[in-house]
Structures are given as C-alpha cells and as structure tokens.
Amino acid sequence: MEKTYQPSAIETHWYETWESNGYFAPSGEGEPYCIMIPPPNVTGSLHMGHGFQESIMDALIRYHRMKGRNTLWQVGTDHAGIATQMVVERLLDADGKSRHDLGREKFIEKVWEWKEESGGNITRQLRRLGASPDWSRERFTMDEGLSKAVQEAFVRLHDDGLIYRGKRLVNWDPKLHTAISDLEVISEEKKGHLWHFRYPLADGSGHLTVATTRPETMLGDTAVAVHPDDERYQHLIGKNIKLPLTDREIPVIADDYVEMEFGTGCVKITPAHDFNDYEMGQRHQLPMINIFNDDAEINTNAPEKYQGMDRFVARKQVVADLEELGLLEKIDDHNLKVPYGDRSGVVIEPYLTNQWYVKTQPLADEAIKSVEQGDINFVPKQYENMYFSWMRDIQDWCISRQLWWGHRIPAWYDDAGNVYVGRSEQDVREKYSLAAELTLKQDDDVLDTWFSSGLWTFGTLGWPEQNDFLKTFHPSSVLVTGFDIIFFWVARMIMLTLYFKKEVPFHTVYVHGLVRDSHGQKMSKSKGNVLDPIDLIDGIDLETLVEKRTSGMQVPQLKTKIEKMTRKDFPEGIAAYGTDALRYTYYSLASTGRDINFDVGRIEGFRNFCNKLWNASNYVLMNTENEDCGQDGSQNFQLSLADRWIISRLQEAEKAVSEGMNTYRLDLASQALYDFIWKDYCDWYLELTKPVLWDDNASADIKKGTRRTLIRVLETILRLAHPMMPYITEEIWQRVKPLAAAEGDSIMLAPYPVADESKIDTQACADIEWVKGFIIGVRNIRGEMNIAPSKQLSVMLKNGEENDKRCSSEYSHFLKKLAQLDEVRWLNEGEKEPLSATALVGDLEILVPMAGLIDKDAEIARLKKESEKLEKETSRLQGKLGNAKFVDNAPAEVVEKEKTKLADAQNALGKIAEQIQKISEI
RNA sequence: AGGACCAUAGCUCAGUUGGUUAGAGCGCUACCUUGACAUGGUAGAGGUCCCCGGUUCAAAUCCGGGUGGUCCUACCA
After folding, report:
1. ipTM for this model
2. Is A264 in contact with A208 (CB distance < 8 Å)?
3. What is the pLDDT of residues A399-416, one digit of tens each?
4. Which CA-bearing residue is nearest the C1' of B32?
5. Taking the C1' atom of B24, which residue's CA lies nearest?
C-alpha cells in the first residue's frame, strides 16, 4: 500500500472497475430493493443538495446490495421544460436569434443537440460521488419510453374525465409567455403603495373611494364591492359608478368577501386580473375584461391612450391621469406580497387563457388514504402533516405550458375548434370517426414537466408495457428527497401512480433537510456562498474559487462582497478531501430531516478519519502479510483478552450501524462506526496487539490469534464501512481479503456483516475496562505531573481485591507496554509504602513513587482537583438518597445504583484525603 | 394570521421509552517526532442544556407560557 492516503489515486480507478464489470445492475437474486432517483435537471450541475441526496441513496443501495437484496437504483434525468428552453434560448440570443427565427422543429433539434453536449455533466458528477445506480437503465423524461407513458397517461385521464380544457385565470409569466403552476410562483414581501381613488357615482350624487395596490387594473374594473353589512355604503349598493378614464359604467355590489376595516371598505373588482376578483365575478356574473396582452401590455380593450403600454408604465400613467382629474385622494405606504416567477424572476400576472387541467380531487382522495393507512410512510413522520394539509386543499392542476420543449399535448383541433384527444392523429381519426378530409391541427402546448416526473417510478420501468422489471421493482422501496419537493413531485407521483398502477409508488419517503452554508444561509449563486461538491473532492485554490463564485456577476459591489467573504472563509482555498470524506460528512450530518449547515471543519475531520483507517490498515498489513493469520482455516490459534474484547465490541458496532441504516439515522450509523474504528480499534486494540506481536516469548498460537483477529476485524470493518466510504474500503479490502480468507471480486458484492450475539464477551469487556482504567490512571499522573511519556516507571499496587490480583497478573504485559512501566508489583506485607502519587481503579490503589519525579505541590493540587469533583458528586448523591420520597418512589434498581455510586465516591474520597494528608506531612 | 421545526461547549452537531459525572468533531491549553498514523499521540480546560412557570421522588428530555431563529401555507383590494 502507498505510505500515505491519497484519495485521488484510488477513486476513479475503482469506479471504472465497478461500472465496467456491471456490478451496479440488479443481481436477479433475493428480495427486490429499489430506489428511484429523483431525476436531476438535465441542464443542471451537481450542487451540495444533490451530493447529500445521492450520497444517502448510494449508502442505502450499497447496504442493501451487500445484504443480498436484488437491488435496483434507477437513474435518469428530467427534461426540465422551462429551464432547458431558457438555456438554449439564451444561447441563440448570443447569436442575435430567437427561437421564432428558427421555428419549432429546428429549435427542438437545437435543444436535443445541446442536451447531447451538456446533458452528461450531471451524470459524470454523480459518478465522481461514487454513486452506484444501474447506468444501463438510465432514462430521460423525453425519451421514447417515457414519452409513450406520458401520452398514454394523458389519454387515459382524459377519457376517464379527469383531464379537461378550460378558460380560467392562470399564473402567467409575461416574460416566458407561459402559464406556470402555483408552486412555481414565489411571493415576496415588497414595499408598495395603496392608492386611494375617487370613483364618481353615475347619477352625479357624489363619489366613493376605492383603495388599490394595482392602479392600472382599474381599466378592467367591472364592479365596486362593499360589505353587505357596511352601514356607510348601504345606500350605494345597486347604484352605478362612472368608471374614470373609460366610458364604462359599473355597478356597486355587495359581497361579504370585503373586509370593512381594510382601506376604505370599497373594493374595485377586476375579475380578469385577480384571483379573488375572479371568484367574485363568477358569483355576481360580472363581465370579465382582459386588458393585457401576452407581454402584460395594455391591449385594445382599454382606452386607446393606454394601448401598448407596459403594465408598470400604465400604472404611472393611470395615477397621473386620475390625479389630474382630481380623483387621487391619497397614497399610503403599504407592504404587500408580490408574485414572481421562480424561473423568469418577473412579476406574475393572473391572466385569462385556455389551459388543460387535471381534476385532482378524486386523485387526492386516494393519495391521502394511502398515507393515512400507512401504505406510505414519511420519515420523519411530521412531514405527513405537511402532505395532508396540502392534499386536503388541493386545486386543479394546470398542466399545459406554452413552451416548445416538452411532451406535446396529444390533442387535435378541427377548424370549428372541436377537440379530439388520442395517441396520434391517426388514432384520433379512428377513435372519433372523423372524415379523412377534415383538417386537424395538434395543440401547440406541451405538458408540465412534473406531469412526466409524476410517472417516473413506473414509466422508467417500461409502463404501459408489462414486463418483469416492472413487476419485480414496483412499488419501489424508498424515495429519498427534500421537503421542498413534496408538493411538486412526491404528491403528484403518489396521485398518478395510484391511479394508473393501483399501487403506491414507494413504501417510504425519506425526507432530508436542505444543505446550507456553515452560517446557516441558503446556498445561492447570488449570495456567492455555493460550494461545489467536486471542489471539496478535488480541492480548489483560492483564486479559482473566487473567480468561480463571482463570474457572471453584474453588480460590482456584490462581487466585491462575495470576494471578501470567500477570502475570509477560505483563506487557503479548499483542500482535496476526497469522495469518501465528503460522503462521510454528509452522513454525519444526516439526522432527523433538519437542515444541515455544512462546515468545512467537519469534512477535514473525516478526511483525517480516512487517513486513520488507511494507516491502521497499513499497520495491520505490515504485521500480517507473509504471516500465518489462519487464512488456511487452521484452528491452532489462541485469542488474547484484547482479541476477545475487540470481537465483542465489533458485534455491538455492527448492531449499531445496522440499526442506524435501518432507521434512516445515517448520522448515528456513521458515528457508531467512527467511534469503533478510531477509539476502540485504533486507539486501544492496535496498541494492545503490540505487546503480543513484539513479545519474543509469546507463543506462536497467541500471535496467530492476534494476527487472525487483527486482519479479520479489519476486513469486517471495511465491509461495515463500505456503503458510506466505498473507495477507501475497496482499495484496502483487495489487499486484506486473502489474509482474512475472504472471497469475492469486489467488496461491494461481499456480504454485509451481521452481529453475532454469541460473540459478545462480557468478561472480556469488564477486564478491558479494568486494563483501561489502570492505564488511564497512570497516564493521568504523567500528564498532570509533567512526567515525560518516555520515562519508564515502576508502580506498586495495594488494597486490591481478588479480581485486581488476577487482572494485574494476567494482563501485566498490556499494562507495562501501554503505560510505559518497567515494573508492576504488589506492596509486600508490612512493607513501608513510599511516598507516591496515586491513582484509583475501584478499590485498587496504584502507587507511582514520587522520589525524584514528582513535585509535591503539583500532586496535592491534582488530588484536590480530583477530590473536589468527588465531593460534589457525593453531596449530590447524599441529597438524593436522603430524600425519603426518592427512596420510596424510585425503582429499587435506580436507588441501588445511586447507593453504589455514593459508596464508591466516598471510598475514593477517603483514600484521596488520606493521600493528601500523607503528602502534606512531609 | 395559522402551522411546522429549531434553540445543548467558542463553532458545527448528537443526546432513544424522564434516572449519564450532559457527549462528539473542529477550535483552544500543556506535553510528546515512542518501531501504522503530526491528516498523529497523551492529558486537560470549556456548559445557567434560550427564559419563566408546572407535572414528577427525579426534567436537556413531558406540559403550558414567553423570547429568538428558520421555513411552509394563506392572505385585506
């Protein structure tokens, strides 16, 4: 093995080996286990959130694969309608062209070209993470198979009466010229104004005052509403308003939607441009006057003066004109929520258009039931409430988008505007018995990307065709996803899957948190705090990082700020930590669904952990290669105390890690493994093998037992760790396996360790605790007394019980080596005890003679510190045990435990007091 | 406005059905290049478990109220 751990030297090599050998594909044997990847955006690149999510999935997949399950990790990408179309349009724009210059067909060709070029980016990055999906089954939502599923789903839903077309208010993006769903609208609090306008009554008897945040929409007002109980306006109900700036008259109506206390209590009603007004318009059969075009400019329904004006220009103009007419009463400051398109960033306009909808209520009812009944479980559980509350208040889903990139809606129109839905134009003609000469034109719109993603779990497996894969792997086992996508995707997947497959898409939804920066800030390009997982793996120097974070920044101040922050946070750039360390960091932070603040300090710690494992393995190999470690199956070996103890601890570690994996507590699993490897195996066990292996007098059998245990425990550790740190474990395992009599071509196909309760050796554990207590006692004296670690000491023992006598004699070789002692002996009967520093192990007193070694005051100070601690402890326990209520009410074993603690503490305290006395007397 | 989640060491986080001397990593202090490892070892320091009540023999843990933070949902034009 290389002397030092260098992740870059091993990672790509092993990945290529695994992939080219087809190890990622399902084995075809065992109980199926399946995870469907939440398809990343094909235009995208890997961010920390992906890294986190994919690492979790890979750990679960590798774990279950090693446990012998027939494991499928279905991989693929999403065509991301709007995002992808925008990227390609931007490219065209650089050449001064628009998609309309190219025309639909040519444009789509361009998109495909671009996808071929850049679409591999994210899958390449996935590979760098060590992800082990079945690449041979990679799918793309625009592929033929998925497209067929989408078409089939649309036609069936339509024929079943669950898809309809209607003219309604939608969220319109005036920049992208498409409808978007509620979920794609981000509302942000903005400072705005509340304009108060006087609307004159038509009969000349005066006016009323309305308040609005959107003056320009008054051009489309078709009523003014007041509350039916509002005494101020009773007399106005039923009268007409002469709508200023127009030649229209509109009625004053009564509706209890109006809040009397807000504004003036009079609301202008614009049914074509506001969701609430739309509903009120429906209730009162008000006309709807659309005053905008697709660009949100004033159209010809408005007075000529305003036609062609942008909405914000029109706003100013309307206000100015009303002011000139003396109708502007006042302008108040007002905070309001403004809807923005999450892709385009422009203000979204409620806009009347023809769109396709899915009737969601019947689907939602089933979807709710499946979670209520426990057919689907959320982890953590509280996300079920979020899911229910959304599902119970669900709106029909607008699924048409006015884009070119996506699944084109399988609907055709004749010249009279009749709609026919079918699998193709031919199919439509047959299905509806249409004359051959009737001209049909396909709908121009495409489907919402989430419509296709909703079919992901079964569409990727070949549906609507029935095949073995679909039968074997659907429903999938677990969906790993972020909570931000529960509505977008999870909910819709559940609805559509239940409808088409009559079964759930997955049994468990494991919801993880968001990855934030170390200060808890959301990572975003504009904040300049994004970390690229690949940079954490490969490292990046400061200048490149600054350049990367600030490139394309338009605002110079922002650029300066980001640069400053980056230089402060990463003065040395970022070191190359390797994939295994990055993955381990993710796991360590993956607790109960809460957000994680990613701190580079953590990853450094885990890089060190990898290094530790590497060096420990190096030690083990040095001592086992070309040696008899029982790899031939021979039984002539003997286990030392340390061997029996580490084997015992290994069982507990195996149990803890598996429990963590099974309950989606990867943080607990990784912690248990970390502690076992570093604290038990490296800190203690490896040290305890040295007195055996380096002892010329030790028997061949016991040396063999130690070597055998060294190598076999290491081999097990590697398998235990493999799902979390795939590369380093494979690299080492290949060297270790022959010595441990393990078989197989790759660790990823080796069996996962299972705890064997019968190997838990409580006696060995108790004895090791004794040995550790002894050693730590001596080390403590050394540390606090400033005795050089290299200085060999002679210690004497007194006051011990039988067990202390046994342990001190059986394990003296361990004590001598690890505590650097050249002699350990019991005080003889009647022998005068030399002045000593003392350590206690239960009743046993360890005496370290002070002559020439120890500063008297230092020893007194040390003992006093110890005795203060014990005094606090005793008084606490005495208080507790002196309380009759505690003694009477607490379970006997709890009381007993406290009593023992008190006795031990008092005993120790007495001995220390005695010692302080002795030393002080000199 | 309603709801969810969170608040534990300087920082990032664990802490199970109430009973631990409240833990880890990083950082900090002292000592140490001893034959796997200085990406290391040994020994330490460091906590009003956000605040106030309550339940209980016993609360970081359960309940109520507050404060602060994050997020979601719905919004009054």
Report:
1. 0.94
2. yes
3. 999 999 999 999 999 999
4. A789
5. A671
